Structure formats: structure tokens, C-alpha cells
Amino acid sequence: MTAQQITAENLIAAFDLPGDCRVDQRVNKKLLIEHATPNSSDKRLINDGVAQIDWLAALKPNTIGVPEYRDDVRDYLEIAVLCVALKADADVQAKPARLAELIHRAIPYPTLLLLKLEENSHEKARQGKQQNSQQNLMLSMAHKRLALNDADKVILDGDVVAVTLFDDACTQAVKDDFLQTLALRRQPQATLHALYQGWMDKLLALQAARLSGAFQIADSPEQAAARRAALRQCSDLQTRINSLRLAVGKERQMARQVAINLEINKLNDELLQTISMI
Question: Using CA atoms, how far apart are residues 96 and 72, in angstroms rounded to an integer?
Fold first, then answer.
């Protein structure tokens, strides 16, 4: 399986899930709106943006042989695997990470979420692309915990990890290395929490590789935690750099332009140093 031929279907196949855990049911997006508790803008984004939701698999102790996990703040009784197709709409395509967060909030189980970002057919034609060109895919994960004030409610525990797959930011070697790590049998098997964290570590390694150019799985929980912190810092630095680049383009005073460019250079140096830590 080569990276150029990746579709949602053969990406899911790379996880090598046993047949007993397959569900393959369509989910009404009204359920997503009811459980995501979004504001009016988010409801419109779901209504206008989601084309189809497929519940692909339910990973439970009795379907994959991995024990459940319980502690004072978490109940990992099941991992859901979902594939969501988004409509070819400019506003929707600009906000896949927000849609991913809304979907994670709506589902009470930790979820392995695949988003299919369909390109507009007119845009494909404008760019001279084939109609059967590869879909843009985003893989997303988020840990869950029980709400402190309501033990029956499950909320997000930490950041949502969302990575666009197999674009020009990934070399062929990175793509191949990532795909080879996804099989269920290659993940930790102690508990469902450990299993989910195993997949999240692979996704974080891919996120890091998009910056560093090398796919490398963290050797320890401490190294994984340090990588997560470094990735957050990289994201913050990139946001600040982009903001300053916009500002320098609007600035008319030469002295201010020089000062802003010096700040951009300083942040770029800090970004490179942070990337070396991931």
C-alpha cells in the first residue's frame, strides 16, 4: 500500500481491526447536534458541513481482547471508530479541526476519528486535478474524563490532537513509517486507555514529523509528554509569526517594519530550536 493511493477505506484497513468489532452503521447528524452542545454557529457548521457519519467499529474487551480501564476520573469501556465525510464547502474546509472537536465532545467514548475532506469539483477542475484524486484526510483523537460536577457526563481531557494526513508536509518515508505503526496488534494491550494512548503517540509522532522531517515514536511517557509540550509551543510560535507577518505587510513606518522583522527572526530561531526538541 503506497501513500499516494491512500483513501479512507485503506487507511482504516491499516489499523487491522478484527471483524468482531465492526459496526458499519450510519449515524444521523442530528444526534451529533444534540450531544455536542454547540452554539448556533457550531450547529450551522455541523448542518452545512457534515455529509455523512459512519460508525465503523466499537473496540471493547469482548471484541478485541483488551481490558477496560477505570480510575477516579476515567472510564474507558469502549473506543469508537468513526469516519465523517465533510461537504465540499469553503467554510467547512477551513474549519475541520473545529468540527473534529465538536464530534469528540458529542461522543461519550474516546474516539478514533477520521475526517474525509472532499475537494470541490469546480476547484479540482480549476487546478487541473483528476476527479478520482486522493481525498484529503484528517485523523483526530482526544482523551475523555468524567466531569467533576456531574459523574454521568464525559468531557474532553486535554487537547484534541488533529493531523492532516499525507500532504506535501510529509515525505514518502514519513508516510510509510506512520502507516506501518497503526495495526492494532502493534499498540499497547494492557488496557483500552493504554491502547488509545498508543495510537495517540503515533499521531503525535506524525505531527512532529511534519516539522522535523523524521518519524520517531517517543521512547517513554516522559518523552511523549515533552513532545506534546514542544508541539504546543511550536503551534503558538507559528501563530505569532503569522500574525507578525500580516502586521509587517500593513506597516508603513520603516522603523516599525525593521522592528517587526527582527521579532519575526527571533521567533523563527526559537521555533527551530523547539522543533529540534520534538
Answer: 32
